[in-house]
Every structure is written in structure tokens, then in C-alpha cells.
């Protein structure tokens, strides 16, 4: 991607920020009499579609998520597991041992690749020891300045793979013993080009933030499954994503010019009419970040990558490559996830400046209400790995309040993207292994 493309992203960020500014400013400056009725109408549309999406999960256990037969070993494809690891000395040994010892899968059909992406800690030494212990472990090394971040590491590893399918895992990932076999049984029944396992938190009871992240992941899976069932739109989540190698190569592999390779690839798969299945159980388990600084750093990267993909592929999304319901779904969630937080901050500023009441609060209230419903339902659903040890109304309420951090992160990232030129950096999440 050229430097001119980055400038184009920057310009699009500024246009988006300016549009949010005007949407918030104009009603305050002109005092439209019927504008409040328009806001309530939009809120009703948001509630209506949001409830439809959530309600599709009621059939989940006996529709797409149900597997009628277990695929035989003879039918299982050759699978390559890819793990991009940078400074993962706390968890890499545990991951490799679990992949070789604890997974049910024919050894002649399973290849495990660990990409040491320029680690500066003990990761290379640990991988060297493990490669002598496990003959089939393939360790691929890259220099610290190889570039491309996680996407670059995965793309570099592709040249060494020869399986039909690829499973991308993070270094802190945990899978159940029969996850792979059940995963391919799901693929066979749904004829998916890619599948995302529901993400679950291993350290859920560590503190308030980890509990909230556990519920947030369940909420996300609820929305993803519902969107897939209603509009055929779903997204990969990085860890626990399975994809057909042929499909990945046809889409241009992993984008090295984005900070969220999974979100970028999701849109390219949608544009190529490749279907991404969402599997509730078995989940892929991972660590949640345990402090506020780590959470905000992670969310800034997610927000930036989420906006980048819409700026990059927005023109294609409004062509005839996808149908009208998919366009509506993408527009709906783009507004709620990215536009609403920025508009709301400007709305609050103008309400103070004009000594006026905030105008867009009904839409914000609606968004939080839908999130609360999805939180509650996700936490109460039958799960092989419970979302919370004990779910209650107070925890749901507090978790909804926790989501308000997005109303600070999204505007901040949007402003930063509009002003500063972007240098693509892979800022990894620290994994403690505890």
C-alpha cells in the first residue's frame, strides 16, 4: 500500500470526523422543531433490527450450531495451525504442549507452525528446546525489523504450509480436546469458507475488567451469530479463526497495512461472497487484559483497525458486490460502533456550549439497552465454558456501564487518525500465562 493510500485514509478520517461534528452541531445551532421525533424514529429502527438480530440466537442450538454427525478421521483435511509469537515466553511452551498432547486429530494431517517474529525475550530459546522435543513442530523465524506485524508473520509462514485449511491462534489460546474434529464437522454441515470460534476468557474471575471482557465476548458472539443469520454478515476475531487456504489466497492473504488483520480480512471475504460461520461451542479460550492501560491500548488498536477497513473498502461496500440487507447491516453497525460515540461526544460539548439538552441520547440509550440484553442473554446461554461463574442483574448493569469506554476511545482514535500520519505498528497484548 502506498504512502498516498495512507493520506487517503487520513483524509477519509477527517471527512468522517467533520460529518460527525456537523451532525451534532446543526440541530443545536438551528433548533429544528421536529428533530426530536426523527431521533425517536431512528431509535425505534435501531431497537427493531437489534432485537431481530439477538432473537436469532434462540434457534442457535438446533440450527447452524448443531452438528448431526461427527466427521471421521478419513474425511478430515490436512490442517496447518499458525501462531505468530513475539515475546511470548510466558505462554508459548504451554501452547505447544497442549497442541501436541491434548488435541484429538490425526498426526499425519496436522502441522503446527510457530512464527518467532523477532522476539527479544526467551521465546527463541524455548522454541528451540520444544522443536527438539516435538519433531513435527515447525519453527519459523523472522528478524525484528521484518515488517508487516502479525499479518507479515502469517504471510511469511504461508509459503511453508501445504494444508487445505489454516487455523490461526494466539500464543495464549486454549482449545478443548475435540475442538478440531467438531470444528470440521461444523464446516462440513455449513459449507463455510471460514469459521470463527467464540472467544472465551480464561481469567474471568481475576478482577472487574476481566469479568466484563468475558461478558463482552459473549455479547459479541450473540450479535455476530444474529447478523450472520439475518443478513449473512459476520466477522473474524483473530484468535481461533479457521479459513480455507485457497479462499485466503484468492482474497490476497493477510493485509500487512492494517493493525487488525482479522477485521480487514472479514470485509474482503464478504466482498468475495465467502461465508464465515460462527461456532458457539467449543470456544477458543484466551487471557483478558487485566488493567485499564492495557485495555485502552488494545481498544485503540481495535478501533483504528475497524475504521481503517471501512475507509479502505467503503466504496466497494456500496457497489453491487453485496446485497441490500448486507449493506443495511454494515451501515447499522458502523453507525452504532463508530459514528454514534463520536457524535455523542460532540453533542455533549455543544449541549454545554449552547446551554441545551443533549439531542442524541435516545439513540445512545437504545444502543446500551440492546447491549445489556445481549450481555444478559450471552451470560445465561448454555456454554461449555461459562461466561461468568455467577451471572446476575447487577453484573449485567455494571458491564453495560463498562462499555462506555468506547465513547472515549472511538472519538480519540478518530481525531488521532485525522491529524497524524499513520505508521503501521503491531502492538501486541501482553500474555502472563497465569
3D architecture notes:
The chain is an alpha/beta fold. The protein has one domain (1-63, 192-434). The protein has 14 helices and seven strands. It has helices at 3-30, 35-55, 92-101, 123-133, 149-158, 179-190, 208-231, 245-250, 261-271, 292-317, 324-353, 361-380, 393-402, 406-419; strands at 79-85, 110-117, 137-142, 165-169, 194-201, 241-244, 276-286. It has a seven-stranded mixed β-sheet, sandwiched between helices. α3 links the parallel β1 and β2. It is globular, with a radius of gyration of 22 Å. The two termini are 39 Å apart.
Notable characteristics:
single chain; 434 residues; alpha/beta; 7-stranded mixed β-sheet; 11% strand; disordered N terminus
Major sheet: order of its strands? 3-2-1-4-6-5-7
Can you count the beta strands? Answer: 7
Low-confidence stretches: 1-6, 62-66
Helix fraction by DSSP (H/I, runs of at least 4): 40-55%
Radius of gyration: 22 Å
User: What is the overall silhouette?
Assistant: globular
* Helix/sheet category: alpha/beta
Strand content: 5-15%
Count of helical segments? 14
Number of domains: 1
- The SSE string, one letter per element, is HHEHEHEHEHEHEHHEHHHHH
Distance between the termini: 39 Å
Mean pLDDT metric: 89
How would you characterize the largest beta sheet? 7 strands, mixed
Short description:
With 434 residues, the protein is an alpha/beta fold. The protein is 54% helix and 11% strand.
Amino acid at each position: 500500500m502506498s504512502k498516498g493510500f495512507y493520506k487517503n485514509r487520513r483524509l477519509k478520517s477527517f471527512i468522517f470526523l467533520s460529518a460527525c461534528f456537523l451532525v451534532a452541531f446543526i440541530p443545536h445551532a438551528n433548533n429544528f422543531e421536529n428533530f426530536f421525533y426523527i431521533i425517536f424514529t431512528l431509535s425505534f429502527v435501531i431497537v427493531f433490527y437489534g432485537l431481530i438480530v439477538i432473537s436469532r440466537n434462540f434457534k442457535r442450538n438446533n440450527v447452524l450450531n448443531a452438528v448431526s454427525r461427527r466427521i471421521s478421521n478419513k474425511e478430515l483435511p490436512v490442517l496447518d495451525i499458525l501462531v505468530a509469537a513475539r515475546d511470548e515466553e510466558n505462554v508459548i511452551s504451554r501452547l505447544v504442549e497442549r497442541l501436541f498432547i491434548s488435541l484429538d486429530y490425526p498426526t499425519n494431517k496436522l502441522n503446527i507452525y510457530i512464527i518467532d517474529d523477532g522476539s527479544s525475550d526467551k521465546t527463541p530459546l524455548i522454541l528451540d528446546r520444544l522443536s527438539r522435543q516435538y519433531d513435527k513442530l515447525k519453527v519459523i523465524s523472522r528478524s525484528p525489523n521484518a515488517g508487516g506485524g502479525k499479518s507479515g508473520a502469517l504471510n511469511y509462514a504461508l509459503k511453508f504450509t501445504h494444508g487445505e485449511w489454516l487455523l490461526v491462534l494466539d500464543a495464549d489460546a486454549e482449545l478443548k480436546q475435540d475442538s478440531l474434529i467438531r470444528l470440521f464437522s461444523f464446516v462440513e454441515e455449513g459449507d463455510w469458507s471460514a469459521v470463527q470460534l467464540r472467544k472465551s476468557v480464561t481469567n474471568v474471575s481475576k478482577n472487574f475488567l476481566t469479568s466484563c471482557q468475558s461478558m463482552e465476548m459473549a455479547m459479541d458472539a450473540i450479535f455476530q451469530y444474529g447478523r450472520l443469520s439475518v443478513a449473512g454478515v459476520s466477522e473474524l476475531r483473530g484468535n481461533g479463526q479457521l479459513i480455507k487456504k485457497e479462499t485466503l489466497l484468492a482474497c490476497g492473504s493477510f493485509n500487512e497495512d492494517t493493525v487488525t488483520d482479522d477485521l480487514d480480512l472479514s470485509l474482503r471475504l464478504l466482498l468475495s461472497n465467502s461465508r464465515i460461520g460462527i461456532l458457539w461451542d467449543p470456544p477458543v479460550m484466551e487471557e483478558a487484559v487485566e488493567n485499564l492501560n492495557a485495555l485502552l491500548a488494545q481498544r485503540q488498536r481495535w478501533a483504528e483497525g475497524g475504521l481503517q477497513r471501512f475507509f479502505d473498502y467503503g466504496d466497494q461496500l456500496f457497489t453491487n458486490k453485496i446485497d441490500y440487507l448486507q449493506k443495511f447491516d454494515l451501515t447499522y453497525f458502523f453507525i452504532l460502533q463508530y459514528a454514534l460515540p463520536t457524535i455523542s461526544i460532540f453533542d455533549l460539548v455543544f449541549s454545554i456550549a449552547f446551554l441545551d439538552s443533549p439531542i442524541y441520547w435516545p439513540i445512545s440509550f437504545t444502543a446500551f439497552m440492546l447491549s445489556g440484553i445481549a450481555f444478559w442473554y450471552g451470560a445465561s446461554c448454555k456454554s461449555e465454558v461459562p461466561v461468568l461463574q455467577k451471572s446476575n442483574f447487577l453484573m449485567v448493569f455494571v458491564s453495560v456501564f463498562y462499555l462506555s469506554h468506547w465513547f472515549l476511545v472511538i472519538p480519540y482514535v478518530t481525531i488521532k487518525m485525522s491529524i497524524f500520519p499513520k505508521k503501521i505498528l503491531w502492538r501486541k497484548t501482553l500474555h502472563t500465562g497465569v
